[in-house]
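Work Package 4 report. The design task specified in the project plan requires that, given a folded chain encoded as structure tokens, an amino acid be chosen for each position. We show below one input record used in the internal validation round.
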């Protein structure tokens, strides 16, 4: 299993930006498709964005399109989530996830059940 460690969360005012990082170790980074999820208090974990093993294909939930950008750096074995124009409704614990995919197809996963590797989460709080 791959190990995932998130960082970069914090407190920001509405309209501000944060960049989350997810450091991957223990396995070959390019063998994994990856994603970001978030969970607000009292709510279920929800999909935010995902990226294929190559980084060429990305997919976002509608509420973050145009504001968030997912990317990955194979040299650093790290995935990122650049979050701009943050709003109070973006407040949540953000989790990164990875799922092994050696098909070399542009496969991405948008459901939590598809992922077998998870980080511990990082808190993002957006004040109004």
């Amino acid at each position: 299993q791959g190990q995932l460690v998130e960082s970069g969360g914090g407190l920001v005012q509405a309209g501000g930006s944060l960049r989350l990082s997810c450091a991957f170790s223990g396995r070959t980074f390019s063998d994994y498709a990856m994603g970001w999820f978030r969970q607000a208090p009292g709510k279920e974990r929800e999909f935010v964005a995902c990226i294929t093993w190559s980084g060429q294909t990305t997919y976002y939930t509608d509420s973050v399109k145009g504001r968030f950008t997912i990317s990955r750096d194979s040299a650093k074995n790290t995935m990122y989530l650049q979050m701009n124009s943050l709003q109070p409704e973006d407040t949540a614990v953000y989790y990164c996830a990875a799922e092994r995919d050696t098909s070399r197809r542009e496969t991405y996963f948008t459901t939590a059940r598809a992922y077998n590797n998870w980080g511990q989460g990082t808190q993002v709080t957006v004040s109004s």
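The chain has a mean pLDDT of 97. Validation will be extended to a larger panel in the next phase.
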